From TrEMBL:
Stated family: Belongs to the UPF0301 (AlgH) family.
Listed GO CC annotations: cytosol
Pfam families assigned to the protein according to its UniProt record, in alphabetical order: DUF179
Name of the protein described by the UniProt record: UPF0301 protein SAMN02745124_02533
HAMAP family noted in UniProt: UPF0301
PANTHER family in the cross-refs: UNCHARACTERIZED PROTEIN YQGE, UPF0301 PROTEIN YQGE
């Protein structure tokens, strides 16, 4: 008997995972996950299109005794089902934080509270998402899910993350590469 091997993917860091209509986990239905870290030890990503209807950034700033800046603030997002009490800020790297994970040349992720303070005082990043929680996978777990056609991997796009309306990100991320994600399951075939 030969053990089935899960193929090893070099790295998906900085890529999108777009859930397909075949996604078996309803928590990830029509989700766009931005992969922040991926190695032989597993993967970590954040959903960039799932606003949290129960929290607003202005409430979070007030709770932290910080001023609420003028203008419209982005919604608080649910980054994934893991550690929903943990806050992250995904932002364009033209703003520099001392403690950050550089995901790509243009995007970083941080949990540094100084960024929230800078946002409150108008010194923060121009484009950012405030997220609660993340999505995580153990060693080879994500690769197994990719084999089951639950996810489509595509290069990430900053415009999709920061400028497209949340309800359009899932469809638009796939359409950038000519894929109608709503019919993706009908196109899958095996040679």
């Amino acid at each position: 008997m030969v053990a089935e091997k899960t193929p090893v993917i070099d790295t998906l860091t900085g890529s999108f995972l777009i859930s397909t209509p075949k996604m078996p986990d309803p928590r990830f239905e029509e989700q766009v996950i931005f992969i922040c870290a991926h190695s032989h030890e597993g993967a970590m990503g954040i959903a960039v299109n799932k606003p949290n209807p129960f929290f607003s950034l202005s409430e979070i700033l007030r709770t932290a005794n910080l001023p609420v800046p003028d203008g419209e603030l982005p919604p608080v997002h649910i980054g994934g089902p893991v550690e929903l009490e943990s806050a992250f800020i995904l932002y364009q790297s033209d703003y520099q934080a001392e403690h950050r994970l550089e995901i790509s040349p243009t995007i970083s992720l941080s949990r540094e509270t100084k960024i929230l303070e800078d946002i409150a005082f108008g010194r923060g990043p121009d484009k950012y998402l405030f997220l609660l929680g993340y999505a995580g996978w153990g060693p080879r777990q994500l690769e197994g899910e990719l084999l089951a056609d639950g996810w489509l991997t595509l290069p990430a796009d900053d415009h999709i993350i920061f400028d497209v309306a949340d309800e359009e990100k899932w469809r638009m991320a796939a359409m950038l590469y000519g894929i109608d994600i709503s019919t993706f399951g009908d196109m899958i075939g095996y040679a």
